Amino acid sequence: MGAAYRLVTVALVMLTTMIAFEAMAVTTAMPRAAEQLGAVGSYGLAFSSMLTAMLLGNVLAGSWADRVGALPGLYAGQLLFAAGSLGCALAPTWPVLLGGRVVAGLGAGLVVVTEFVTVGRFYPAAVRPQVFTWLSAAWVVPSIIGAPVAGWLTTTWSWRWVFGVVLVPAAIAAALVTARRAELGRRHTDVTDANDSTEDADTLARDRADHRRAARLGLAVALSAGAVQLAIHEQDGSRWWPVPLAIAGLLGIAGTAPRLLPAGTLRAARGLPAVVLSRALFNASFMASVTFLPLLLVLVHRLELTAAGAVVAAGAIGWSVGSWLQGRRTATGPAGRARLVWLGALALTVGTIGLTVAAATSAPVLAHTVAVVACGLGMGIGSTTLSVLVLDLAPGHEHGRASAALQLADVLGSVLGIAGATALFSTRYAAGDAGVFVVIEAALAVVAAIAVVTGMRCAPSGLVD
Q: What pLDDT, in 10s, does the model give residues 368-379?
């Protein structure tokens, strides 16, 4: 928030706020929307459909930003996000609401990656940890205030109002981006590396071919993830095709996603590959947990939506504290930051185990609150640090591609985590029974524990302590 960066920082914070409200506050209202539209069994699809669309937006944004800068992606992303949110607010049926989520997700995918590129090109490396602290903090207000407010709006008026109010920060963000488009288009000299040079026609042609290839692969990943979601949505036992469709979707993800990620990602090779894989594991565990936590509190504990939203908000407090802590460690270098990653994963594991135990023992709501705070703390320390590491480890001229890879792993991890949880829920849930939530949280605790191992490999081999 120094004078040289203040206005651009405010613009980026507003962009993050609108995405955060969609992701966190809407979570509180979704149980009522699913109930009124007759789609409780497809509850998880409302989240995974948006995340699936974000996959395509992430990939397209990386190629787009490396070619023409961040501004076009920012503008297009905001427009799509606003249109999708409006569609959800007016949706007469569940399929229409899902369509709105897809449009909003595509816009969010464009915005998130172009934000990363802007941070890499505008801010010097020394202040990027603090910038990401601000961006993480932008998740806190929508989560602390937005989630209870969303519950109140849903109870007092309608869940549709929750989607409608998202248009307010979207409009403010669009105005700020337009007012400061010159600053957002600038490139800071710190990101220019020794390999940057004037590009000839052959190089530009190769780049365009690479970008087209990335777009095709991104579309294939999104369609494959969508196939998995559709198969889970339709698994009622009376149809034969959901299982082979799910298998085809998983094979499609396995065959295309690794080609968009740094070499060695699936085996957690040291450095950038381990960073990307760790981000996927963090999000698979946390996002699936917070997606189904309100449903547990409403269906099993019979909490009002406002109270359930307050529990989810507690996770945002932990995230804020964790993000602040990592932002204070500005001189540790990649090796020290890798340590923060696995410590964050350890906190996430402990918190998710706490959610498992709380669900299994019918513990008071306070126990769920403490556990979700621990989960948020782990995300703030570990996941935010991964955002810093990806810019530290990637060359400046590849920040767009590296940021897109990180966000692809981010969203794909969330999609697969929520898809797995949705599959378990739809096949095992019985009214008033917390057993399925125990199984879901136990599986997610294992995912978080794997992130502890991959987090230890985030520093390049030459920088390991």
A: 999 999 999 999
